[in-house]
Amino acid sequence: MTRYASILETVGRTPVVRINKLAPAHVKLWVKIEAFNPLGSVKDRLALGVIEAAEASGELKPGQTVIEATSGNTGIGLAMVCAAKGYPLVIVMAESFSIERRRLMRFLGAKVILTPAPLKATGMIEKTQELAAKHGWFMTRQFENPANPDMHERTTAREIIDDFEGENLDYWVTGYGTGGTLQGVARVLAKESPKTKIVVCEPETAQLLGSHQAQTRKPDGSPAAGHPAWTPHPMQGWTPDFIPLLTEEAVDMQAIDQILAIPGPDAIRCSQDLAKSEGIFVGITSGATFAGALKVAADAPAGANILCMLPDTGERYLSTPLFADVPAEMTDDEQAIFRSTPIGVPTA
Ligand code: PMP
After folding, report:
1. Strand 111-115 to strand 89-94: parallel, antiparallel, or no bridges (unpaired)?
2. Which of 108, 138, 270, 307 could form a disulfide with 291, with the two C-beta atoms 3.0–4.6 Å apart?
3. Is the dihedral of CA 316, 73, 241, 137 positive or negative?
4. Which residue is closest in CA terms to ligand 1's atom 5?
5. Most informative mutation of 48, 73, 243 for ligand 1 (most atoms within 8 A of CB)
6. C-alpha pair distances (Å), 87 with each of 64, 113, 153, 238
């Protein structure tokens, strides 16, 4: 299908691409590139899923304002969906997240409310709850809303099953932000591809699952306090300072075979390597997941099929450490090329 009734029909059906240079020769390493979604991330799926579920249940009324706490990609996806469907949108985000994310959401017509960085993810969520209660707005509640994993069960998981039909998928490697991708895909793999090992990556400096320390919650499932194992990490969109309910539910399903801790510098290097060696331009959590997939590959048996999720585009990180070493001015090498012919070169 190449003609669509609206942009919303282009969400999902992202490509699975073979890694040719960065993978060890004894395995088949594949990546699922969520940057192919219309607004460049896996969160376009969640945005469409939660809004359509709320429309269907009657929870979201025509013209009602939608509000969400998000580090960016969910807000950008929601901004697209709300623009296309005609809902006003308010996004609450911590001021520490990258500037281009805020500007993107405002470009798509959303209002962006910034919370002070020291309040972290839990503070951002409490502000959202306060605003929703005061103004009667619809909260999409990405961290607890079952419509989030349901959408991944219906789309992401089905695509994966179809793409490996007739072959064994030996490992599926992912991270978690809300845990929507993890839970939705794990539900289907557990039933239809039970031999697939599910590997979950988290930041080395925020091993919330790895710590096996419980998360305290309010009755609605949102966090009651930050998790003690959390410290800052560069993987924007991964592992907030609490274990989301949807992630905990995935743990309780006992579908996770392995948890890997990924150092921040490995994540950044893998993202840069994917761009330079494979032409695959993705963000920091993609690099982090890929770092995990390379660890899996190193120990995997010959011929194993490994699928690694790549959640978003690298274009979202121009003002972050991902681009810290990329100069804006000509380097010495580039100056030498410039000076190798006469045009534009001053004749002293
Ligand atoms: N990577 C990035 C860049 C994200 O924005 C998100 C979502 N917050 C994820 C990974 C994780 O996806 P999920 O919420 O489905 O766990």
Report:
1. parallel
2. 270
3. positive
4. 237
5. 73
6. 6, 17, 26, 27
Question: Which of 11, 31, 43, 174 should be mutated for ligand 1, with most atoms under 8 A from CB?
Answer: 43
Active site residue 218: no
Select which of 32, 43, 120, 197 is catalytic.
Answer: 43
The rounded distance, in Å, linking the Cα atoms of 55 and 197 is: 35
Q: Residues with Cβ within 6 A of ligand 1?
A: 41-43, 73, 175-182, 237-238, 283, 285, 311-312
| Cβ atoms < 10 Å from Cβ of 63 | 8
Whole-model pTM over 0.85: yes
All domains in the chain, ordered by first residue: 7-36+155-321 (3.40.50.1100), 43-139 (3.40.50.1100)
Q: Tens digit of pLDDT for each residue in 169-224?
A: 999 999 999 999 999 999 999 999 999 999 999 999 999 999 999 999 999 999 99
The answer to whether the Cα torsion of 296, 14, 209, 114 is positive or negative is: positive
User: Please, what is the angle between helix 156-163 and helix 147-154, to 10°?
Assistant: 20
Q: Given the structure tokens 């907030």, which residue do they identify?
A: 240
Q: Where in the chain does DSSP place strands (E)?
A: 16-18, 28-33, 66-69, 89-94, 111-115, 138-139, 171-174, 197-203, 258-262, 305-310
